[in-house]
Protein 1
Amino acid sequence: MTAVAEQTGAWLAEFTELPAVAPWAQELRESAFQQFAKVGFPTTHDEEWRFTNVAPIARTSFKVAAGGYWYNRPSPVEVLGLEEARQHLGHYASFEQNAFVALNTAFLRESSLIAIRIPAGAVITQPIEIKYTAQDADPALAVHPRVLIVVGADAHCTIVESYSGTGKYFTNAVTEIVAGDRAVVDHYKIQRESIDAFHVATLAAQLGRSANFVSHSISLGGALVRNDVNVVLSEGTEATINGLYIVNGTQHIDNHTSIDHAKPHGTSHEVYKGILDGRATAVFNGRIIVRPDAQKTDSKQTNKNLVLSDEAVIDTKPELQIWADDVRCTHGATIGQLDAESLFYLQSRGIGKEQARGLLTYAFAQDIVDRIKVPALKDPLEQILFEKFHEHRQK
Amino acid sequence: MALLEIKNLHAEVAGREILKGIDLTVEAGEVHAIMGPNGSGKSTLAQVLAGRELYAVTGGTVTYDGQDLLALSPEDRARAGIFLAFQYPVEIPGVSNLYFLKAALNTVRKSRGEEELDAMDFLNLVREKMKLMEMDQALLNRPVNAGFSGGEKKRNEIFQMAVLEPKLAVLDETDSGLDIDALKLVSSGVNALRGPDRAMIVVTHYQRLLNHIVPDLVHVLSEGRIVKSGGKELALQLEESGYAGLGIEDEEVARV
């Protein structure tokens, strides 16, 4: 057997046990699985995965599980069945580009799918919460959460996706968002997986004309984490793509973002901040595409990293593909340590060194936390961050 | 027993000796002025007393309140009652003044064996002290020193001192960058804190601050040593004849 066949063999056994679905869905699953079987898991020879070795996922035999989620449906959110989701599913997150998306699509089934629609013009102030909770099991479980959110024109909504669990497992999530013209969508993803978990996720958003989209990606847990955020803008769309990742021990986190300015007059702002301690490793790759049509694009990307130990490693790379000439695109990346003068200033007022380090570390993340508009999310997150920085230094 | 006793103190930074044998005794209730030209080691002395790691102490002893000061961390010195008003207060974006001050005060109170203040008592205390320094209360919710003017930063230092009530305050060039109105305000804030149990070391290049904060003793520092000590009249003498009158070269004057 080839290496690819060896890795995909166990998944094939799981795939054949899937309950039947409608023929079109069956076809989608089969094409996706064929794609996965053809390419297998990516390796570090693949440019997109150069700094992230997924061998620990590839060599583990997982048992595929369904369910494990909870979500609310504030009125007038409509729940879509598989049939109603048909015209959108797989249209924004392409399984041909990403083996993990292929695997997720191959395991598409109603019991792992959350598909909702926000009717045109609806303004929903209450956040739509989607929670996935993974269980510890032997053999370890793999879950393929699939979310589809269809936001009608002029609708306003807030979506909070959160992931957590216990023990060793593999979450392989795909979220597709399609927003109509002038829609306003605030999306939060809170990743608090267990410290032994693998988490791979793709968020693909297709945004309408003059729509406003904000993505906040907060990543705290997981042993091996890869987040892809792919956003496609239309004319006059405004997108804000923010992220915060905090890693310690031997955690690895890879954030790949792609902001595609397909049409003119689009604006995108991106700020990703990372805090690394221990022997943790992080990757940031920020791709910005400005298509030939997309004149008057205004795009700004920033990646800032605070490195608290000598052994943590960050690889950060902007990737600008600009095909239009009348645009403004800026990018910048920084990697730094805690400021010695600030530390001394705090200590000179009686604040202990460890507490001072915690305060300054928290302060580094503050602006990302400040942009969170959901109080029910912000308050516990502030608490979690405080505790995290405290425990960081206890180790 | 003196509150502070410095004996033959030597310190260096990056292998260059800055303090070359300082001897100084400060009793509780006294205000000492340390004057000297730029580069004489005044700020180094202030920072060494507060425990800045950048400076390596290579010889001598510092006894504060019966303890070996040099063995204490910066935070333990602050908890024991030492306060340094920085020449260049540090901006800390992301940490609010209010949070910072509350954390500082409660740590210091705890080490004095006092109870932590609750939110109400803390706010009342802070408001009272802000009034003293004529500071805008809106500054409390702003990040520490971030976007403050030079004068606001210096006032903020004295405001912090008023809240923390140290036993030994070291004021490092608190007058630099202040206009005359701000200077008077800062000085009256400092004077309000003078008392029989509190000592102060006022480090300054110019005599003008000492018109407002009148010292008990004046020391002139040159090339890392105290070359002359006297009463407040020594400062006036310096005002008239400059450092050159004492046979000291002032870099700043020399450059003109």
Protein 2
Amino acid sequence: MSGVRLLVGTRKGAFVLTSEGTRDGWNVEGPLFAGWEIYHLNASPADPDRVYASQSTGWHGQVMQRSDDGGKTWEPVGNEFTYDGVPGTHQWYDGTQHPWEFARVWHLEPSLTDPDTVFAGVEDAALFRSVDGGQTWQELSGLRDHPTGAQWQPGAGGLCLHTILIHPDDPQRMFVAISAAGAFRTDDGGETWRPINRGLRSGELPDEDREVGHCVHRIAMNPSRPDVLFMQKHWDVMRSDDAGESWHEVSGNLPSDFGFPIAVHPHEPDTVYVVPIKSDSEHVPPDGKLRVYRSRTGGNEWEALTDGLPQEHCYVNVLRDAMSVDDLDPGGVYFGTTGGQVYASPDGGDSWTAIVHDLPAVLSVEAQTLP
Amino acid sequence: MIRVILPQHLRTLARVDGEVSLEVQELPTQRTVLDALEASYPVLRGTIRDHGTAKRRDFIRFFACGQDITLDPVDDPLPNEVAAGAEPFRVVAAMAGG
């Protein structure tokens, strides 16, 4: 019988939540790596037992972990992330130039076909790849070497590469997003990259058509329609119908178009989920009500999903990597909060249940559909 | 034999209980002891000193014989008591974070 495994990264360790396909009862394992920040865990689509985890602390830096049995046991793998060549500088908060310095791995994206190949998005923004199951890492420096690299500036959370999307039909095409540089695309397997930010409007930037400098929070796609991308930007929910060549706003009737995560339904490519947050100054739900908003029209028309979610006195946030969908039918949607709750909806968002209430602040949630 | 006491997170990572004992062939210094530690426990590479530069991470301190020797030159000999195994070389995670 099929099932779901949720890989949950938190400020103080990782948790693995598993359920049968009915998704009405959950087993909770953890904390794994107790006391460490687990920015992200992700499993190989080619081998569901192969899971990678990014583990770090301010004291001891970056550690990488790999499991070959679905998260039951783990082995440390390589943690050396060295920028290719002379790293140079990027723009600092005050506008001066600042040396590129590795801080941590934000996001892991395993290859769609090879369990030993995995991509890592890191802070300060760069893309690394391992082809030996995480033992060694090499930078795909064509991204950071883009002529705009010296103009990239960190967002409040750092200069992080947080989103990696692999085109399901063309492995040479990938999308990444960096706060606060913007979105980029490669069509040659990561050798060269170009910004794909046309149509983004960031009120803080005097030049509306600036090529980089946009604070993209997250990009999502449905694999059946990979050239249609949805983006949650700092402000604005955006859509591209041409693989990022151009973007248009689809915020529509959202109560706020600020937020972090965005996800697309596994079987309905025009069904999109966001979690509106009050503002850039107050990272809490509007009116103290935790509401997921769903559009079934590819944006612009949004409905509030509230059944099972707290509708008063709720002041948590949902971070950019903390929402995910499974592949079951009906499709499941999951998200975790900075208050330590992980919510599950086995019916596409119509109703929600808290699987756990009191984990450490949730940094990431990945839903893995098990055979 | 050099005795090394690691902070909790590194004991967990290295899968050791209590102290670590190391054979250090050269004159025991911060550098040679940490080199020997990382050779015996490769998983600790990058967690005390940065890869490549071997620069001490900001929130790591070193103590010996009740003294903070963090800022001593890395090639200075460690105290005789540490070299003789009477006292441990302590790797300490500084009080920071939440």
